[in-house]
Amino acid sequence: MKQKSCYILAIESSCDDTAAAILRNDEVLSNIIATQDIHKSYGGVVPELASRAHQQNIIPVVDQALKKAGVYKKELNAIAYTRGPGLLGSLLVGTSFAKSLSMGLQIPLIDVNHMQAHLLAHFIKDENPIPEFPFLGVTVSGGHTQLVLVKDYFDFELIGTTLDDAIGEAFDKCGKILGLGYPAGPIIDKNAQNGNPLAFSFPIPKAPGLNVSYSGFKTNVINFIHKNTQKDAHFLDSNLNDLCASIQHTLIEIIYQKIEKAVDLYQVPRIVLGGGVSANSGLRNKLKNKESEKSWEVFLPPFALTTDNAAMIGIVGYLKYLQKDYGSIKEAASARLKF
Ligand code: KG4
Ligand code: ZN
To answer: Strand 155-161 vs strand 145-152: parallel, antiparallel, or unpaired?
Structure first.
């Protein structure tokens, strides 16, 4: 029997991207993102400005998503939105919008955990293979660095996390020291491709179990640059690509060592990557190379689904819709939402 089509509007506003997507079942019909350039001049996300920009962007972004998909509001079956984790002022804009529209249209409202969505994005129907359970989820972004044992769609166990900075934050902070723009992750990645990853060596910070630590690394980089620019004022310019390659190499090595440990400990040779830093070519290549070397299965997200987007919120919305796992307008946005 042919399955009836279900149309979901998904809304994401957890940080500095205002995003809306329309899904027909597990297929993405439109995926619109308004990136907030205002934060570039501050070298990081300013929460109050992010929340104001979401208010300006949300209606045009939703409107565009509906038009691009060729779907009318009255055809929607449910609205999925990011409940958390994220910046509270940002989350409140998407949450309030989703609640009001679901009441107005009298259709189910589905709350989504942003971190689950980064990993469940792999279940979107496209040309890429879909992972089987269980798998080791590796979520690497500007706000999080998590190792998660995923046994089923909604059976997530956090087994490792950063004790301080997230890996994306470390990329961005090191980039700031190197005088690069914000966000620095993609710029470091680009420069690293023309540099030697072993040109400079930085120690790997210690952290217990499957946890990682990134803040000490950033301090090491500051001290190293300071020491060398005192000796040679052109040190940064003449070594930029090698510095980017060496910094990237160490940032990846820190999380890689814990991925390897988690695979052995939990016997899960199936790795699923998600989050903004999963766009990093060094990390992608390193993990892909391990497929043949270690007989791992590695699932990398398509580039469009690496950074924050609403399509990933939509697929979780669809999976919950199938289970009739609806939310309620009484549920508040939660900056520290857990699995
Ligand atoms: O998932 P995301 O869009 O937002 C958060 O939830 O944080 O991730 C943004 C982070 C930023 O820190 C950015 O520098 C990093 O992802 N990023 C990268 C690359 N592309 C984005 N880091 C390293 N290499 C990249 N190619
Ligand atoms: Zn994210």
So the answer is: antiparallel
Find the length of the chain.
Answer: 339
Closest alpha carbon to 87 in 337, 335, 276: 335
**Average model confidence (pLDDT) across the chain:** 95
Ligand 1 neighbours, Cβ below 6 Å, are 15, 141-143, 168, 171-172, 183-186, 189, 275-277, 279-280, 307-308
The number of beta carbons lying within 10 Å of the beta carbon of residue 226 is: 11
* Joined tokens for residue 187: 């710029």
Nearest bound ligand to CA 167?
1
3-state SS, residue 138: strand
Name the nearest CA neighbour of 28 among 62, 58, 68.
68
Residue-level pLDDT at 16: 85
Domains present along the chain, CATH in parentheses: 7-123+307-322 (3.30.420.40), 135-301 (3.30.420.40)
What are the counts of helices (DSSP H) followed by strands (DSSP E) for the chain? 9, 10
Pocket test for ligand 1, best of 39, 40, 171 (most atoms within 8 A of CB): 171
Q: Report strand pairing: 155-161 vs 27-35.
A: unpaired
- Whole-prediction pTM value? 0.95
25 and 5 Cβ atoms separated by less than 8 Å: yes
